[in-house]
Every structure is written in C-alpha cells, then in structure tokens.
C-alpha cells in the first residue's frame, strides 16, 4: 500500500510528459501551433506600446515599418493595431483577404457621431452596407446624376472668377479652392451653397464634426476603457452638442424636402431627395417607399439617422480631399517651374488660348493626369486607410486576430523605394508614355498606388471627386500664369503637412495669378 502513491505519481508524470510531447509533435506536423503576431516593438505588460503613440502618424509609422517590416504590430492597452506599409502586404490584405478586412474600426465617439454606425463609411460589412454602397455608386455619385456634375462646372466657374479678381496680386488659393469644394459638396448633398445664415450654420456643424472625427478617432478611452466616463478630453460634451445641432438642421431639411418632393431623377435633385425614396420612419410612407425602392431594384430601408450620418460622411469625405489634392498639386508645380511649363504647354496645344477648357478636353490632357497621379502618390488624400479584422486571419504567415485595427499606410506605400524609382522626387513623367508607371492606375488595381483604397471599401465618390479635381486644375493652369508672392524662390515654398485625416498643407497656398488667355477666363 505504501508503494502505490509513488508509483501512481511516476505513471502520472510519464502520462503528462507523453501528452506534452504528442501535442508538440502534432502541432509541428499538422500546423496547430498558433502563428506569431506580426513583428513590432516589445509589448510591455499592461501598457503595451503606449510610448509609441507619438509615432501613430503616417510618417512615424513609416519609420517604424522601415525597422520592423511591411507588416507591423503595435498594442496600446487593449487595442491591437497592424500597420501595412508595402504593396505586397497591401495586396494580401485588400485583395486576398478582402472580405476578412471589409470592416472599418469605430471608436465609441465615432459610433456616437455616426448614430450607431448608421452611415456607409463605418457600417459593418453586411446587407445594409452593400445596399448603401450600391445606392451611393449607382445613384448618388453616378455620372448620370446631372445635378452633381453641373455643380462641379458652376463652382469651378466661380473659382476662376474669384481668382481673376486678384490679377497681379496675392490670392489665398488654398482658401478659394476649399470654398469651391465645400460648395460642390453642399449642392450635391443638400442643394445649397455656402451663402446665407442656413449655410453658415451647417458649415459650422460640419467643421465641428470634422474636428471631432480627427480627435476622437483614437482616444485614450480606446486604450483604457474606464477613462471614457471621466471625459478628460472634453469630447463627450462637444459630441452631444454637435449631434444635437445636426439633428435640428437635417430634420428641418428633411421636412422641407418632404413638403416639396422631387423625382429622384430630377435635374436639380440632391442627395436628400435620392435617399428620401427609401425613408421608412415617416407616418404613411410605407406604400410610397415600397413602390419607389422597388423601382430602384433595392430592398434598402433608411431612417432619418441613416440620412443624417450619410450626409455628414459626404460633407467630410467630399470637401477636404478634393481641395487638398488641388492645393498640393499647385504647390508642387510652383516649386518646379519646368513641370508647370510642361502642363501649361499641353493645355495651350490641346485647347489653345482662344477659349476656355471644356469637360470634353480632359481626356486629351494626358500629362495633366500624370501630374494628378503623381500628386496622389506623394500626397494621398487619406494617408492612413483604416480597416478592421472581422475574423481571425493569416497574412504572410502572421496571425491577425479578430477586431484588430489594420492601417494601410498609403503614404509609405507611395514612397516605397522597392516599388518606385526615385520615390521622393515629384516626377509626373513616370506615368507618361515610356515611363516605368505608364500603365499604373489609381482606382485600386495597382497596390503600390492606393489613394482611394481598394476592394469593397474603396471610395464610392472617386469618379465625381476626381472630375472636380481635373476640371479645377485644368481651368487654373490654362487660364493663368502663376508665381510665388514677394519674389519667393520655388525652393523656399513651405511644404509642411498639417496633422489631419487628409494631411493638408500646414499653411494655405498663396500665389499670384496673371491671365494668359486671349478670351475672358470665365
């Protein structure tokens, strides 16, 4: 009896040893061993990589990726983030595993500002999101929507008219371009311009939302959840006030649209008109919605919150990027007079100096489009594109757990020395005939140039936005000679970026225009 326990202990130890060895051998043989996380800085207990939060900009993350590789892992508190910084890693995420990364991350403040992800940008991938994207691509931003495209041409005319008032003197071009972009978006969304008290009220709301989106996209509460109750950054109070203001304004706009309904395909119909066909939270609207939505081949049903959140998506996503691309391209050309001359010579040859540029001329201006592509490469409108893992996923032999935030560093990819020759040089000719990138496009099929993303979450308004960019640039460069103010040398032009979702210029671009046409510029 005394020998039973020692013998049992020996047998138990042998059994456990055998199980451990079996598990180890099986894991190696059948691949059951968990894959490693992507490489990154050492994760400290409790706080993770909190000391790297100052590097969470596109430039800071590019420096970290240069050290750790194209797939970088960071963890701050409870939040894991993977940064993608090479074309091949971007392809694996956005093409090979497109569905697994089809979600967007949304902090608690973002979820509140979007009425519980009631918009298209932050809605989880699924039936509602698919129907919303279909509505945006085929109805709200379609080339067939005449009102939106007419707004582009009207507002570009106004931009040129405003610039002409400053002939021979300094004009704040950045401010004028931003106002043009704001008016295009306002007209497309609500059928109004940035004029009068109503417009001023709404623009103030949009500006507050835009600032809140930036400061609340990654807050301390994301990393340490209990901090949210303290509202140390004062964000909660501002969010409640901003959403209340938006509620009042858009409810009033919806009521006005309902009181004076327009056919969805009317020449002057705006986005609210387009979405009201799917509204279900108004008394007596069920029959109308059922009929209209069936006519559009959709089962989509919208509430007022969906409309409010989507309008804010359009205002924030439509205004900043268009203005930013135009301002950066003009900056690059002012810094390189030879490139400026080449673009303007093309315009003079194709269009002549006896008339204004028309929309039909744009397809005949390949070098202008090369300059636009090069600007999208070095100054992408969204330098960090955000995705979220909807499920556990394997990318390049690394484990990406469910709910991990994935940042596509478009800025770093556009300056990858292995993907681009002379990546830091502004050289539009690389996209021209005989250039290394002659066949490269920015619509998402080439993973070393992703200014608008790729796959399911690519920008639905890209076509309309780029038409506005090309039209405005063609008119500005065709209609005027440009120089820097006060005899400034091109190399002295400030090219610093401001922190923000679109990385605009830190200082608005100012320049001196002089008309170059033999006809009126407008």
From TrEMBL:
<keyword id="KW-1133">Transmembrane helix</keyword>
<dbReference type="GO" id="GO:0020037">
    <property type="term" value="F:heme binding"/>
</dbReference>
<keyword id="KW-0503">Monooxygenase</keyword>
<dbReference type="GO" id="GO:0004497">
    <property type="term" value="F:monooxygenase activity"/>
</dbReference>
<dbReference type="GO" id="GO:0016705">
    <property type="term" value="F:oxidoreductase activity, acting on paired donors, with incorporation or reduction of molecular oxygen"/>
</dbReference>
<keyword id="KW-0560">Oxidoreductase</keyword>
<dbReference type="InterPro" id="IPR001128">
    <property type="entry name" value="Cyt_P450"/>
</dbReference>
<dbReference type="InterPro" id="IPR053062">
    <property type="entry name" value="CYP450_84A"/>
</dbReference>
<keyword id="KW-0408">Iron</keyword>
<dbReference type="GO" id="GO:0005506">
    <property type="term" value="F:iron ion binding"/>
</dbReference>
<dbReference type="InterPro" id="IPR036396">
    <property type="entry name" value="Cyt_P450_sf"/>
</dbReference>
<keyword id="KW-0472">Membrane</keyword>
<dbReference type="InterPro" id="IPR002401">
    <property type="entry name" value="Cyt_P450_E_grp-I"/>
</dbReference>
<protein>
    <recommendedName>
        <fullName>Cytochrome P450</fullName>
    </recommendedName>
</protein>
<dbReference type="InterPro" id="IPR017972">
    <property type="entry name" value="Cyt_P450_CS"/>
</dbReference>
<keyword id="KW-0812">Transmembrane</keyword>
<keyword id="KW-0349">Heme</keyword>
<comment type="similarity">
    <text>Belongs to the cytochrome P450 family.</text>
</comment>
<dbReference type="Pfam" id="PF00067">
    <property type="entry name" value="p450"/>
</dbReference>
<keyword id="KW-0479">Metal-binding</keyword>
<feature type="binding site" description="axial binding residue">
    <location>
        <position position="459"/>
    </location>
    <ligand>
        <name>heme</name>
    </ligand>
</feature>
